[in-house]
Amino acid sequence: MILAIARRTAIFIVSVAVASIAVFLFMAVLPGDPAQVALGINATPELIAKTRAEFGTDRPLTTQYFDWIGGVLTGDFGRSYVTRDMIGPQLADRFGVTLWLVGAAMMIALVIAVPLGSFAAVRHRKASGTVISGASQLGVAVPAFLAGILLVQVFAVQWRLLPSGGWTPPNQDFGEFLRGLILPALALGLVQGAVLTRYVRSAVLDTLREDYLRTARAKGLMPGQALVRHGLRNAAVPVVTVLGLQLTTLLIGAVVVERVFVLPGLGSMLLDSVAARDLLTVQGIVLVLVIAALLVNFLVDLLYTVIDPRLRRS
């Protein structure tokens, strides 16, 4: 098992290194001169050349990459081309907001998907199971931003129960923090919960058809009891795979939802940086998102060995 973990860790490190090169090269080939963008169209050639030297964009690409990645490894993502502020502290603050949102949304999705998906599988030939399957199919078709707009209309505009947007840090006022987090987390979590419900139903339904479940039921256990005692762990293996993909989807979906609810997260920072053509900031944000996605996949691989003892033996 230790060898397997070491191998997966090495694969993760190599993947991060390759991803960093890909992100850097992609930003480097984009049209536009950061110095020209920062100074405006009326800047003189001498001032542009001076600004390029200040930004370091007049050096060879290999030198720029190693300077940039060396700083990233120590938490220094450089200075914004537009505001000249340090990017690292901004990334840390914004990423914290996004993590709260994604974590709350995933908890909501799991609370919805695991019981409803299991119930729909056990009752797959009953009207109640069909209703849950149909409702989950409808939920899959609803975009997260539309769900957010509908939630704002109902809970913020009509009923005035929750704020329509804004962000309060949890260390300032935890009650207001929770009130501001509920609607955006629901907007993300309800849609992802509908997607996950279908996968849970499929995985549990396959497990219910296994011979060991039939044996458990032949010994007198009810379908639900047999599933809880013997089936859920095996059904969890394909669900964990989808869960990793869903976490990555939530990170991307948070970009739009943060904009709808005016949250100062990583998604809002990315959109603002793209609009300002602040390529160094965009480069740092994209790298953080890619590393987060790779880290999720790495943790999912490790979780397989915890859930399935056969993988540990192999």
TrEMBL record:
Matches recorded under SUPFAM superfamilies: MetI-like
One Pfam family, short name: BPD_transp_1
InterPro entries: BPD_transp_1_N, MetI-like, MetI-like_sf
Membrane topology: Multi-pass membrane protein
CDD domains the record matches: TM_PBP2 (cd06261)
GO molecular function per UniProt: dipeptide transmembrane transporter activity
Entry keyword set: Cell membrane, Membrane, Transmembrane, Transmembrane helix, Transport
TM segment ranges: 12-30, 99-122, 134-157, 177-200, 235-262, 282-304
Residue ranges constituting the ABC transmembrane type-1 domain according to the UniProt record: 95-300
Location relative to the cell: Cell membrane
Gene Ontology CC: plasma membrane
PANTHER family, A to Z: DIPEPTIDE TRANSPORT SYSTEM PERMEASE PROTEIN DPPB-RELATED
Family: Belongs to the binding-protein-dependent transport system permease family.
Listed name of the protein: Peptide/nickel transport system permease protein
Source organism of this protein record: Kibdelosporangium aridum
